[in-house]
Every structure is written in structure tokens, then in C-alpha cells.
Amino acid sequence: MKIRDINIGHQPVLLAPMEDVTDIGFRLMCKKFGADMVYTEFVSSDALIRSINKTQQKLTICEEERPVAIQIYGKELEAMVEAAKIVQEAKPDILDINFGCPVKKVAGKGAGAGMLNNIPLMLEITREIVKAVDIPVTVKTRLGWDNEHKVIVDLAEALQDCGIEALTVHGRTRAQMYTGEADWTLIGDIKKNPRMQIPIIGNGDITTPQRAKECFERYGVDGIMVGRGCFGRPWIFKEIKHYLETGEELTPLSFEWKLNVLKEQVTQSVNRLDERRGILHTRRHLAASPAFKGLSHFRDTRVAMLRAETVEELFTILDSICEMYPSLT
């Protein structure tokens, strides 16, 4: 798959842009385990043009994570265009526009997936951003606002006509948020449309290597994007890439190995932020990690793990899990 002159490889697996998740440390970790392309946390155009320090920090990228995309969102044409110009100065490989975030504080104000209620403005913003920057522009969106307005097949053509160079589609409507199952049928229909010439990337419920392979084969997408499936499991990219390349499951990773990866996540987060904020930042990964799934009598340990306030306390608890379940190591 190529986006302009950026070769992302055959059947690429991409890390989705996620607020408070895809910071630079996590992106580098996913890259190490095989992610073919990574995206920053999404960036507010309004905050960016107002030079909010926390927002500007999200533009920090490094050579080791390339190819990398910076994603922006907003609802005002001038602000989005100005933000796109600022993003270009940070020198990402790609600028991605977020027309898919469903959360109330974004979509409820007309940005993100909220733009699905104002498609003329969505297309105008897209056209003007394409004109304003020299780097490739891509879009990430959803099937439509709700089940009665699944507009994505026609919308995909319109976005391509605006000049975007790849399109990512999450197989849910805004109304679904993250509930139910992702429907990839319309994603496949986009790919089958003979008018579509740009790469189509599918997103939604990629949680196993088998599902990743199925999505490539059944729907014909050029790439797939992993979102919540990587929470507490950055090694999912290693598992998926191995399965796509060999048709066989990766030799099971040991429990101790997974714990060490999670500890590395904590360490890099603490080093980037500070002890308190770094631990808070990684709690969602610890809470969601499948490494702990199915462990008997684990509830009290889990509560203690998620309440730990220092690295020493947290790592002592994590190390004790190996002692509690020696058969897993």
C-alpha cells in the first residue's frame, strides 16, 4: 500500500489515533512490535492555533516512528486550515483529518463524527486543507451518523474528489459509539467501487490475528487499523504480522514477557511525564490488558494494581503476580 510516495508495505497494520493513548512512547512501542504506521493522539485545531502548550506537545514526533501521521479535528474552516499549516511545520509524513470521533465533547459540538451531519462543510474543509499543505492528506470517518444515514459509500467518492490520498473507515455509525459489532460490509463496498482509486483502510474490532486476516481477505481492504485491541497489548502487532506472513499463530508469549512489556510502558510513561501522571496514564492499559484475563482469585490484586501510586509499589505488585501464578511464567 502506498500513500503518494510513502510505501507502507503489503497488508499493513496501522495504529489508530487515540486520545490519551497514542503518545510518542506508546507509538514507538507499537512500532517496535510491528505497526507499519502510527498516528498521534488527535489534535484540536482551535487549541493548536491558540498555541496551547499541551496541544503543541502532541505534535512531537521522532524519526524512529516514521511513517507517522498527525491527526487534527475541528469544525471551523479557517481554524482547520491554519492548524493544518502548523502541523505541516512539524514534518509528519501525513496529515489526517478526524471526521470520526464519536464522543460528546467532540461530535456533540459538530467536530469529529459530528461533521457527518454537515457533509458540505466536511468536504469544504477537506478541499481547503488539501490546497493548503504539500504533504498527503487523509481522512478517518465512520459509516454515517446513525443506522438511517449510512452515507459512507457516496461520501468516500466525494472525499476522494476533494484530493485526499487515503481513507480510513470505522465500521460503526456515530450513534453506535463503540457498542455492538463493527460492520465491515460497507467498507468492502467502498473497496469494490471502481471509481475509488485511493487506499481504503478498515477499522473496528480488530482484536485477533485471525480477524485481521479475514478482513483483508473478505473485504479487500488495502490496510487495517488497530484501536482498542492494543490497550494493554502492544504486542498485538507482533501477533498479527506473524499470522499474516505465515498463516500460523505466533508461539505464545510468556506471561512474564508480557508483564515486562507492561512495566516498560509504565517506565517510559513516568520518564516522559512524572511518577504520578505516568502511572495514571498507563492505568487504562493495565486495566484492559488481556495478560490478566482468566486469572483466578485476581480481583484484590487487580484493585491494588490500579490503586498503586508509586512505581516501586506497582512493580512489587506486578512481580508478585508471577509468584502467585508460577505456571504462567
Low-confidence segments, given as residue ranges, are none
Q: Shape, please?
A: globular
Strand content: 5-15%
- Encode the helix/strand succession as letters: EEEHEEHHEHEHHEHEHEHEHHHHH
Distance between the termini: 39 Å
CATH H-tier superfamily of the largest domain: Aldolase class I
Order the strands across the largest sheet as they lie in space: 3-4-6-7-8-9-10-11
Largest pleated sheet: 8 strands, parallel, barrel
Q: Class of the largest domain in CATH?
A: Alpha Beta
Helical percentage: 40-55%
The pLDDT mean sits at 94
Structure annotation, total helices = 14
Nearest-angstrom radius of gyration? 20 Å
The name of the CATH architecture of the largest domain is: Alpha-Beta Barrel
Q: How many beta-strand elements?
A: 11
Class from helix and strand fractions: alpha/beta
CATH topology term of the largest domain: TIM Barrel
Total of domains: 2
Task: Explain the overall architecture.
There is one protein chain. This protein is α/β, with parallel strands linked by helices and 329 residues long. It has helices spanning 24-32, 45-49, 53-57, 77-89, 104-107, 119-132, 152-161, 185-192, 209-219, 236-246, 255-272, 275-288, 299-307, 311-324, and strands at residues 2-3, 6-7, 13-15, 37-39, 43-44, 68-73, 94-99, 137-142, 167-170, 200-203, 223-226. An eight-stranded parallel barrel has the order 3-4-6-7-8-9-10-11, surrounded by seven helices. It has a two-stranded antiparallel ribbon with strand order 1-2. Helix 11 packs antiparallel against helix 12 (275-288).
